[in-house]
User: Which sequence fits this backbone?
């Protein structure tokens, strides 16, 4: 996700942030619906319902994070009408975002934005980078397994894909010189790279395996901390 998109989304989400008299940060569900690009309120209510279930599963009281309210909105010509809405804590917004499609940039952003306890842009940006690296690594791992499975099915072993193609072609073309073999291997490596690029995978941008594990632990640790210590709405008069 590009930095400019992160900056824009951060500004948008923060512009709809509110605070209770006790200083608890919250968002209105109607605003979150708009920010997450849900067009129909009835469909969005279904997502909120799933988030409430997740809230209970995490052993938190729904009333602490989802508070039903009514508010007046302008409908034109200076007239108003009352509509239903819900006050949502950061934790509630996080649970709602978790039920969305992360292929949408707004939802992918929200999943990370609401998991960050502070609103510093740098932290949001870093978490998104960690998350995207994990997604890329997982995507690459799936591709590796698919290729390995194909090679094993065809050859009975798990050689490197490009190497396996080279070995096959050397035998098929009866290459004899070292230069012929080297050029054949280079050509096949380029072919495999082209295949990966067509699937949106750039191996040089992927972190090393041990770094991926560190990233995964860090993201999971942040999520666990957030589940244990979410904000609460205190609306007692």
Assistant:
């Amino acid at each position: 996700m590009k930095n400019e998109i992160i900056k824009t989304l951060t500004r948008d989400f923060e512009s709809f942030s509110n605070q209770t008299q006790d200083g608890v940060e919250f968002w209105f569900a109607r605003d979150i619906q708009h920010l997450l690009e849900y067009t129909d309120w009835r469909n969005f209510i279904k997502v909120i319902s799933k988030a409430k279930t997740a809230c209970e599963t995490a052993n938190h009281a729904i009333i602490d994070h989802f508070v039903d309210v009514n508010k007046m909105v302008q409908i034109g010509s200076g007239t108003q009408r009352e509509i239903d809405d819900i006050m949502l804590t950061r934790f509630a917004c996080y649970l709602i975002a978790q039920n969305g499609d992360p292929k949408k940039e707004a939802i992918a952003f929200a999943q990370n934005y609401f998991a960050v306890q502070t609103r510093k842009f740098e932290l949001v940006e870093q978490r998104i980078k960690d998350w995207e690296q994990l997604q890329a690594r997982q995507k690459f791992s799936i591709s590796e397994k698919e290729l390995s499975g194909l090679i094993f099915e065809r050859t009975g072993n798990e050689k490197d894909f490009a190497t396996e193609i080279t070995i096959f072609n050397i035998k098929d073309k009866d290459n004899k010189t070292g230069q012929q073999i080297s050029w054949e291997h280079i050509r096949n490596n380029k072919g495999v790279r082209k295949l990966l690029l067509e699937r949106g995978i750039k191996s040089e941008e992927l972190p090393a395996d041990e770094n991926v594990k560190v990233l995964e632990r860090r993201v999971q640790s942040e999520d666990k901390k957030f589940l244990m210590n979410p904000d609460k709405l205190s609306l007692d008069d």
